[in-house]
Amino acid sequence: MTAVAQAKVVIAGGGIAGLVLALTLHEIGVPCTVLESVSEIRPLGVGINLQPNAVRELGELGIGSEALDAVGIPAREWALVGLNGKEIYAEARGQFAGYNWHQYAVHRGKFHLMLFAQVLERLGPDAVRLGHKVTGYRTEADGTVTALIERTDGTKDEMRASLLIGADGIHSAIRAQMHPDQPPIHWGGTIMWRGTARAKPIRTGSSFVGLGTSRHRVVFYPISQPDEQGLADINWIAEQTFDSSHDWARSGWFRSVEMSEFAHEFDGFVYDWFDLPALLAQSDVAYENPMIDRDPIPTWIDAPVALMGDAAHPMYPTGSNGASQAIIDARVIGRAMIAHGVTPAALCAYDEQLCAPIGQVAMRNRSAGPFGLLDMVDARCGGHFDSIDAIIPAEERAAFMLAYQQAAGFAKEQLNAAPSIISPGSKVSA
Predict the structure, then answer these.
(1) Exposure of 196 by Cβ count < 10 A (0-12 exposed, 13-18 middle, 19+ buried)?
(2) In the Cβ-directed half-sphere of 216, how many Cα atoms lie within 13 Å?
């Protein structure tokens, strides 16, 4: 076992959360090292949304529209449509709705690779150590922390630091040590199948559409600009809720499946404006995932150790803000360090600001998040209606959506008026 030289901050995990934190720490003058368990960073995943609050922070990190346009497309609209094909709710998004920043629909893997390249360019080629899995930590008498590391070849290392940040995802070893009695991963009954297909975008040309019911729905949106033939990469997520006897654990995470295993569940999603079976048939591969999260925990910190991203607040994707919140986590940690130094006090300030309210957001997502409107439609009319205004008045629909946006931190007036999380040029005092 080798003791590796002390770093100022060790980040366990080189996903979106860990890489944005590394860029933030570099911006404010804090040395860091990212330890990532995989031996190669590959473009995994399909589409995700970056909300305007996250796009703002990326811009302040120097990752602006040119970089984001290379991995995605500004979203123009968010819409819910009932199983009968009739619109329930629609609203503009990003700058098209009066925000100062766009919302972006991006290819997660391409976005991740872009962040990885930015970290290597700005921090140097040794900033990210691949094949290094953080399996736990040891707090030291002098207030520092030692990350316990297992390499891909099975050898063990240690790295001592002022602070350790666990950005190691829903299966976080750091969270498990911090909260050994945490409940197991929670599955609410829904299985998701994800994929992409080349097709013509509908509605505005860049619309996020949720179609169906709370127990049986599909979400789809473009994640690229259309080509000369008008075709774009359309990200789709088909979701079906099962009873408790379904063996969700076999799904794993991004398990490759044949379309024939599930596509028949969505044969009825055919309308004069959209044909889901035809879209699915254009897909080369599909990935199956259980929709899982964890119960909120009372704190994300243990003295010089903190959790962020999915390690802190794994949440259902119903609010399209998991990645966005990870970016906000990184920026709030940076601001706390500017105020309190690279100290446990900074982690306390971060925890006090975000732990409880973001835990509540995760619970909103578990109860369908903004898709809760579909639950209301089902409860009031069984999903069949001629006029949605007669079922849920427009004012009630708008109030429901605003409440979610406020809780998740991207309500328009609130965000446009808010000062920068990190003032340009701010540095941590030596």
Answers:
(1) buried
(2) 14
Q: Per the structure, how many domains does the chain have? A: 1
Q: Tell me if 147 is assigned to some domain.
A: yes
Using the predicted structure, report yes or no on whether residue 52 has a pLDDT greater than 90.
yes
Residue 246 has pLDDT above 90, yes or no: no
Closest to 129 in 3D by CA, of 30, 252, 5, 264: 5
The mean pLDDT value of the chain amounts to: 92
The mean-pLDDT minimum among 153-162, 171-180, 183-192, 405-414 falls in 405-414
Residues recorded for the chain: 430
pLDDT tens by residue, 92-101 = 999 999 999 9
User: Does the residue 302 lie in any domain?
Assistant: yes
| 51 bridge partner residues | none
Q: Does some domain include residue 149?
A: yes
| Of 332, 412, 326, 330, nearest in space to 361 by CA | 326
Higher pLDDT, 7 or 208: 208
CB 305 within 8 A of CB 160: no
Expressed as residue numbers, the domain containing 170 is: 2-74+104-184+296-367+410-417
The more confident residue out of 289 and 178 is: 178
CATH number at residue 44: 3.50.50.60
Alpha-carbon span 325 to 57, nearest angstrom: 11
Whether 430 shows a pLDDT value over 70: the answer reads: no
Higher pLDDT, 103 or 213: 103
In the prediction, which pLDDT does 132 show?
98
Instruction: Examine residue 180 and state whether it is found in any structural domain, yes or no.
Output: yes
The strands making up 47-50's β-sheet, listed across from edge to edge, are: 47-50, 104-107, 72-74
Task: Taking the CA atoms of 309, 36, 317 and 104 in sequence, report the sign of the dihedral they define.
Answer: positive
